[in-house]
Amino acid sequence: MSLWERILVECQIEKENLFCSEKSVLVKGQCEEELMNVATLPYDSLLVYSSQCSPTEYLQVFIFPLLLPAMEAMLHEAKRQKCFERRRFGFSGLDFLTLFLYQNNPLYVQDRRNVTKLNDIPWVSDHWEQHPRPPLPLSLQWTEEEAAAKIQAYWRGVTTRRIPEVRELLEWQHQWRMYNRRKQAAKEDGI
Description:
Elements: H1 3-20, H2 28-39, H3 43-52, H4 55-80, H5 93-103, H6 122-130, H7 138-141, H8 144-161, H9 164-190
Helix pairs in contact: 2-4, 4-5
């Protein structure tokens, strides 16, 4: 029986037991408790325990206590950045999960809290040096307030340049520049 088949069998047994037991869902508090229990064990005993436990137990003890709070935080961040209200957005769930899981790794808590950007992670910066990412379009980089300020500034410039006096001044500046360029070119040719 393959690993995947064992996981499916254990999952089916777990589903059947859920209806009978009082503890029907894995709650956040329980995840955090299990994570703290695992994090206090020595690293060598963790390796032994992780290699001997069942796939379902491995998921519940090692994976879910880290992944569920990370996914919850990702959903809150996506909601804060209004990703559920727009068709296109600059938020990347994978980038957020990578940074969150790197910062909250229970084996390396102290030295990773100061990492605030994805580019601060050593292996990410190494990968990006070899495979650079294309930049996000400005429409996805700017917040709504920044985009509104840019559009308003552009529109104010357009309406200002339509005023006849301003047009006249711009035309005079253009002629003045052309006169100075011709004068400079004649000076350089004469020397």
